[in-house]
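#struct-help
A.M.: can someone run this one for me? Single chain, 424 residues.
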Amino acid sequence: MKAGCLALTIALALTAPALSQDQPSSLKFVSPRRHQTLIGPSKVELAVTPPNGVAVMRVSLFVDNAPAGEKTSPPWVFTWDFGDGSKGHTLEATAAFADGTVIQTTVETSRLQVNETEEVALVNVYAIARDTGGKYVTDLKQEDFHIFENDRPQKLDRFSADRRPLRVAIVLDTSLSMEGEKLKSAVTAADEFLKIVQPGDEGLVIAFSDKVNILQDLTSNVGELEAAVKSVQAKGGTALYDAIVKASDRLSQFEGRRVMVVLSDGRDEADNGLEPGSLHTAEEAQERALRNEVMVFAIGVGKSIARDAKALDNNPTARAEELDFYGRKPLVTILRGFADATGGTSVFSPGAGQLRRSFEQVADDLRHQYMLAYTSDDPRHDGSWRGIKVTAARPGVTMTNRKGYYAPSDLPIPSRKKAGVGGQ
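D.P.: on it. Structure tokens below:
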């Protein structure tokens, strides 16, 4: 055999097995890169290589051990809200193939730092747009929004109309005044509301009477949340403001769209009727929700409070029947104040039969929120209150959004009296 033919034969022998080998499976992050800093809603992209002839069944994403999305077909691209960049994250992806093989990969991101001492934070604002008839406006673009801080125009850095992950606290009034059909209907309605929980969402359940108790801490397990809701029992007075404070503080420990759904039928009052039910005031509770960037959705239940809401809508100077413990302020005004200031909405149900629709309205609002983010043109860390106003370039469109925020402060927040609340 000639030398040339021998060389060709050897070359073919060496290359032929490589051509017949099965393609190995692989999974890797295209973005983000290792130790990259992510801010706000950001794209997460994966590259998946299945073995030869084997289908990809699903690709799942987890952020800090929490489900963040799942797909069964390409492109393997997810969107996740990484907040203001003040924390690093661990991203884990898994790919499952038709032959039963499962592979995984991880990547870590870093927190945002500027000169090791100054952190840059975005101001996140969630807004609901409605037309003159009260219907949702869902086709707005970034250029349709104008945002102002203390009446100064700001430049939008980020915009998204996509659904953002929820961190939602269901806060139920379980005082004696809720006993019977009212509480039963509230449990059924809250249970239905939990069906909006999707991959990436997490919830917690808080019950309040004389004390505030976390019945189920933050979890993505809907079954655990449903069990907690169904376990409530009516007893004692109403520590409404303490419940809002506790829920706000708990939600503040987690990133994402922080939402509180509060259901109550009465004033903040102790079981003996001789003193308030909470150690915190309504003003302190509202401030805590604002500082922790929690949207409060308030559901007021009862014929009197629903009648007051209708009367005040028709005539803002009308006399309300349901007043706070001191007889100074309508309960409708207090509940609306929580919602209006934080960017949520308030609903008033005359009876137990309408509670399901009230929760459905809250769920509808949460499904129709735009996410806006800007960097304030005021760099001072003075802890001051800064008003936020969002308008639309399109005529006839009105916005529901939080009314402002407290600027970062280099000084500690003034101490408040501690509430003797129970729970975890």
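A.M.: thanks! The longest helix spans residues 3-20.
D.P.: also worth noting: The first strand starts at residue 26 and ends at 31.
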